[in-house]
Design goal:
This protein is mostly helical and 230 residues long. The chain is 81% helix and 0% strand.
Length: 230
């Protein structure tokens, strides 16, 4: 919306997501939305999502390096739409660690190729496997904080962190506003009702997916026509 270059905004967003994610986790822990005891279930799920997310990110670097940004965005839109529909129709899956691995790898893949698509998929995926709503949101934010930090390191290693006069002030503003909002978000999560929240998240996922598809559909079809003609 601000017409900023990706090379400027991506590292800012990644570092901001990391700081806000860890800050949010502190409040989630204090409000008992998540339990981070050594052997707690939430801790184990966080480790699974973080480790598997890294695998997904590596796969993205290997296989998606030559994919067009337009097709990547279109793919994310389709996935958000699909997950949102499944959520609204109350599709459920029996919990298993293998399902969490698959969800995490796909989400990590999404984050690496587009910078997004992680939170909605991980949160909704957990809810569909029967996980508690509040824990699902908190675990998603915690694991995404780790992955955002790792992505920031990779990004800076390959592209650098440039234009300090612009990026540093913007990063500080985003971090401060995000940190201020984290206790509000954690408190809101604590008071959420599972039934209503699933509907809200499902509609938001569908809306975001449709917006993405509608925005890029003409461009994708044009690119596809050019590819066929060649």
């Amino acid at each position: 919306l601000l017409n900023l270059e990706a090379v400027l905004i991506v590292p800012i967003l990644l570092l901001t997501q990391m700081i806000i994610g860890f800050s949010s986790t502190i409040f989630h822990q204090r409000l008992k939305n998540i339990s981070l005891e050594k052997d707690s279930f939430d801790t184990k799920v966080t480790i699974v999502f973080t480790a598997s997310g890294v695998v997904g990110m590596v796969l993205a670097l290997i296989f998606a390096v030559n994919l067009s940004e337009i097709f990547i965005t279109f793919y994310i839109g389709l996935m958000l739409l699909f997950i949102g529909i499944l959520t609204l129709f109350k599709v459920k899956f029996k919990f298993s660690w293998s399902k969490l691995y698959v969800i995490s790898v796909i989400s990590g893949f999404n984050k690496a190729i587009s910078g997004g698509g992680y939170g909605p998929l991980v949160t909704l995926g957990q809810i569909m496997t029967g996980r508690d709503l509040r824990s699902s949101i908190a675990v998603t934010e915690f694991s995404e904080a780790f992955l955002s930090g790792l992505s920031f390191i990779f990004y800076c290693c390959f592209t650098g962190f440039i234009n300090y006069e612009f990026t540093i002030p913007l990063m500080i503003i985003l971090m401060l506003t995000g940190i201020i909002a984290t206790p509000i978000g954690a408190q809101f999560t604590r008071k959420m009702r599972r039934k209503h929240t699933k509907i809200i998240i499902g509609f938001l996922s569908i809306t975001l997916g449709l917006f993405t598809l509608i925005r890029y559909f003409p461009v994708v079809m044009e690119a596809y026509s050019i590819w066929l003609s060649n």
